[in-house]
Design a protein that fits this description.
The complex is a heterotrimer of chains A (281), B (193) and C (438). With 281 residues, chain A is an alpha+beta fold. Chain A is built from nine helices and eight strands. Chain B has 193 residues and is mostly helical. The chains are: A alpha+beta (281), B mainly alpha (193), C alpha/beta (438). Chains A and C meet through loops of A and helix 10 and helix 13 of C.
Chain lengths: 281, 193, 438
């Protein structure tokens, strides 16, 4: 018994001493953020991120070589914690969500040619600026859907991207992959948006899209302050959103949508039970 | 001499630690997304297993056997291996940052890996002498590396395939691992004993 | 003669019989000529005329901007009626000069012919550049750039590309039969500029009359004529060099890295015209063909002629057109309408009937490996395309995506109709963008 206690205790003591000395002697300066992130991670060393363990992941996130959303076991809390440590969204006090400013799916907007190529918006955009006649509408090939780290984007059967307002964290990854800048980041509490991105004149828009903004100015007349017309395109003024919904019925092309009552046609998303997000996810 | 070669071949192919003994499945599935990381992991395992089997062989021989406390084998081995690996990691980090970059980040992953402990325990169970123990550890870790690299190569290719949604991720990974294991079963009978 | 060739490639039905025996016809001028400022690889030219200006044929209307650029000339005399973005064969609206011909077709008086024997090399190069000569095979790379190898690179062979491996096209074929003298004169000028004596003309074996004619005519000039196996893409620069000389252009390199300069036979003829007569590149020969064209023809067209006008000259359309392609079917560019103008790189206009156009959506790769066996560069198109689909562009680079010549063999042969070339081109674009950023 004594021998057992002494020998195991002895091994432990020697090991502990050696480690203690080594820790002092071989101390290496590490980025404090790296340690903080390591702390925030689940520490399972599962390798789901494709890197060797949590420390490798923390290192990669800090030096910016990998995107900080790869930790699936940690879920969104971990991602948020990492974002806080890195100060990415420290400035974003109000929660934001992405909006696809287009409703011109295949049934409503015209195409100038038939596209059978690579199912990627950026690839399609390189061929005569994309198959869609509208120069700024959603191409619907799902590049944003694949880029979204939260699975918040779906493509409808008629090829239109729709962002789920509850899953979206406003990270902006989709914005950077969209070749046509259709996706905008807007305050989450604003639910009324003009879903059109075309700065073409009204007559031209009418030619290629049934649901595009024709800059008729009716919305701005109905609810002054709530809408601004700029270069033949109306947009909701997020400073004054209180009565914006009143113009929805008046819009002749129905391109204004209130997300608290429903998502664009063809989407499987249901409007949120709570009218709008109120605090950070 | 021929005995040592047999031990080596047997440990690499016939009784492959991952694919035949099913030890060390965790890093096998976890760190095999890219061939590059798999290879780094394999190298780290080769190093740790060899060093660990050397140290544990001495611990068993001169402490546990000497005092007659073989029943404390597991706890003693874990203790020694874990602290040894930590120590090596710290030394590496300070003295050779280049080596640490390629090897060191994998070390914490295998401090308490069952494959490492398995090698140490099997060495004792099989009654290997010192040289045999080292060769066995080397073979086991080489086999581990081989399995890792093969599997990572397969996974890199699977990533390119348009799989049905339900089949993606863990599902196809496990199926592939099973098939690879089956393939390694083909080595059975290569070495007698 | 033994037929030389390269490894890889394939042999699509050449469909050249529609127009191969039709002599070159002069295409009358259209009502309006639309001459884009961007007609070559490199920086677009800068337009230097304004609305209301009277221009003469051959007058410069857009000046070269930078070394890899050439000026653009008026294709006929007339009045400039618009300078604005117009539909371009690239698929978008790009700056162009619109000229209303006055019907006189008067050459600019200042253009003077010269005897190339009396001019030095630098003057010749300058004249070639000022005449706006670009590679007329379709790639439209400025000719003077190819003729100015950087220090330390020695050129010993000039290869003339008379292969015309694209199915349907017969413009170069007719040119070799009808304007053999000009080609040979152009070759002599090119040899003088490069300071070399060896010149080889590569011609595919499906043009026996052209081979016979060129062999007879070239003999006294010490120009070799090499008959080549009928195999696509025999006329691609690197494959042609391999077939004619057995040399390989290194990965990422240019033909001059292995001592070769390649020019199209049409370019040689244009150079002869530019030096002897002083006339810049304002017209070219193009084949108007395809099942939807009533009378396929080889036409000599003024640069800037709208495609619709070309079709009208060929008896209009028959059947429902399914696809309009500028260039050949393998590497040509599909067009949105017949409203775009023919430019310097327009080697042909191909209009296919709707029933001929296969519009199958891409299926999954069945790993048959056909794309790998036909790739003339020996790449793995399916692997690169799979990486491109997943936006893994670093991996596409390690698979040498940048060496792809976009010949279209893999897409042609793919039983799953995967858009392989498009995917690889997409990857190349992404790699280049990344390189520019870093």
């Amino acid at each position: 018994m004594l021998a057992a206690v002494l020998s195991i205790g002895g091994i432990g003591f020697i090991a502990a001493t050696a480690l203690g000395i080594a820790a002092k002697k071989f101390a290496v300066e590490v980025d404090p953020r790296e340690l903080a992130i390591l702390e925030a991670l689940p520490g399972a060393n599962c390798g789901a991120c494709g890197l060797p363990g949590c420390s490798g992941y923390a290192k990669g996130v800090v030096d910016g070589s990998i995107y900080p959303t790869l930790c699936t076991p940690g879920g969104s809390e971990t991602i948020q914690a990492i974002a806080n440590i890195l100060g990415i969204e420290a400035a974003a006090v109000e929660p934001k969500v992405g909006i696809v400013a287009c409703q011109g799916d295949n049934s409503k907007a015209a195409n100038k040619y038939r596209y059978l190529g690579l199912q990627d918006c950026n690839a399609a955009q390189k061929l005569a600026d994309g198959p869609k006649t509208c120069p700024s509408g959603c191409l619907g090939l799902g590049s944003c859907e694949r880029a979204c780290p939260f699975g918040a984007i779906e493509m409808t059967a008629e090829n239109l991207a729709v962002i789920n307002r509850e899953k979206c964290t406003g990270c902006g990854k989709c914005v950077s992959v969209c070749p046509r800048q259709v996706i905008k980041i807007a305050p989450a509490e604003a639910t009324v948006h003009v879903l059109c991105n075309s700065h073409d004149k009204g007559a031209l828009v009418r030619k290629y899209c049934q649901i595009g903004c024709i800059a008729c100015n009716i919305c701005a007349k109905t609810v002054p302050d709530a809408y601004v017309i700029d270069k033949f395109l109306a947009s909701a003024n997020y400073e004054h959103i209180e009565n914006a919904a009143a113009a929805i019925e008046k819009c002749p092309t129905k391109c204004i949508r209130d997300f608290s009552t429903g998502y664009p046609e063809g989407s499987s998303f249901l409007p949120p039970t709570i009218p709008a997000k109120t605090k950070a996810a | 001499m021929i005995e040592l070669v047999l031990i080596l071949i047997s440990a690499v192919f016939v009784n492959n630690f991952v694919l035949a003994r099913f030890l060390g499945i965790c890093p096998f599935l976890g760190v095999s997304k890219k061939v590059e990381t798999a290879l780094g992991m394999g190298m780290a395992v080769i190093f740790v297993m060899t060093v660990a089997s050397v140290v544990t062989w001495f611990i068993q021989r001169y402490i546990l056997d000497y005092f007659g406390i073989e029943y404390l084998q597991t706890i003693a081995f874990i203790l020694v291996i874990a602290s040894l690996v930590q120590l090596v990691e710290m030394v590496l980090q300070k003295t050779s940052p280049v080596l640490y970059q390629s090897l060191g980040i994998f070390l914490p992953l295998i401090t308490t890996n069952c494959a490492v402990l398995g090698v140490a325990v099997l060495n004792i169970q099989k009654g290997y002498g010192f040289i045999e123990a080292v060769v066995f550890a080397l073979g086991a870790s080489l086999g581990f590396t081989l399995a890792m690299v093969l599997f990572a190569g397969l996974r890199e290719r699977i990533d390119l395939c348009p799989l049905p949604n339900s089949f993606r991720g863990a599902a196809v990974t496990l199926v592939t691992a099973g098939l690879l294991s089956l393939a390694f079963m083909g080595f059975a009978g290569l070495v007698k004993g | 003669m033994e037929l030389k060739t390269f490894v890889g490639g394939l042999h699509p039905p050449d469909s050249k019989s529609r127009s191969a025996q039709k002599p070159i016809e002069q295409c009358p001028l259209p009502e309006l000529l639309v001459i884009p400022a961007s007609q070559h690889i490199g920086a677009p030219a800068e337009i230097c005329v304004a609305v209301g200006d009277q221009v003469k044929k051959g007058q410069v209307i857009a000046t070269a901007k930078g070394f890899v650029s050439v000026p653009i000339h008026a294709s006929t005399s007339g009045e400039v009626v618009a300078v604005e973005p117009r539909p371009h064969p690239m698929g978008r609206n790009l700056p162009a000069v619109v000229i209303k011909p006055d019907g006189l077709d008067q050459w600019d008086d200042s253009l003077q012919g010269n005897n190339p024997d009396e001019l030095d090399v630098d003057t010749l190069k300058k004249m070639i550049c000022q005449a706006g000569i670009v590679g007329l095979g379709g790639a439209t790379f400025p000719a003077h750039v190819k003729l100015s190898p950087p220090e330390g690179k020695t050129i010993d062979t000039l290869i003339l590309n008379g292969v015309e491996c694209e199915p349907y096209l017969t413009a170069d074929h007719r040119l070799m039969l009808e304007e053999c003298d000009q080609i040979i004169d152009g070759i002599n000028i090119l040899r003088k500029v490069l300071g070399i004596s060896r010149a080889v003309i590569g011609i595919e074996a499906n043009k026996p009359d052209a081979i016979a004619k060129m062999t007879a005519e070239c003999a006294p000039h010490n120009i070799e004529v090499q008959a080549l196996k009928v195999q696509y893409p025999q006329g691609a620069e690197k494959q042609l060099i391999d077939a004619c000389t057995g040399r390989q252009v290194p990965s990422g390199g240019l033909p001059m890295d292995c001592g070769v300069v390649v020019q199209n036979v049409g370019t040689a003829a244009a150079i002869s015209t530019a030096i002897r007569l002083g006339r810049p590149l304002v017209e070219r020969i193009a084949t108007v063909t395809g099942s939807a064209v009533a009378q396929p023809k080889n036409l000599r067209i003024a640069i800037g002629t709208p495609l619709q006008h070309l079709v009208d000259q060929c008896g209009g359309l028959t059947g429902t057109p399914g696809k309009i392609i500028m260039g050949g079917p393998m590497m040509g560019q599909a067009q949105l309408s017949l409203g775009v103008p023919a430019i310097r790189g327009t080697s042909g206009l191909l209009i296919l009937r709707e029933e001929e156009v296969s519009a199958k959506a891409a299926g999954p790769c069945i790993r048959c490996g056909r794309c790998v066996s036909v790739c003339p560069i020996h790449l793995q198109p399916t692997t690169i395309a799979a990486y491109a689909r997943l936006s893994m562009f670093d991996e596409t680079e390690t698979c040498h995506a940048l060496d792809c010549i976009e010949c279209g063999c893999c897409t042609y042969i793919c039983p799953a109709t995967l858009p392989l070339v498009q995917s690889i081109r997409f990857a190349k674009g992404a790699i280049m963008e990344k390189k520019r950023k870093s």
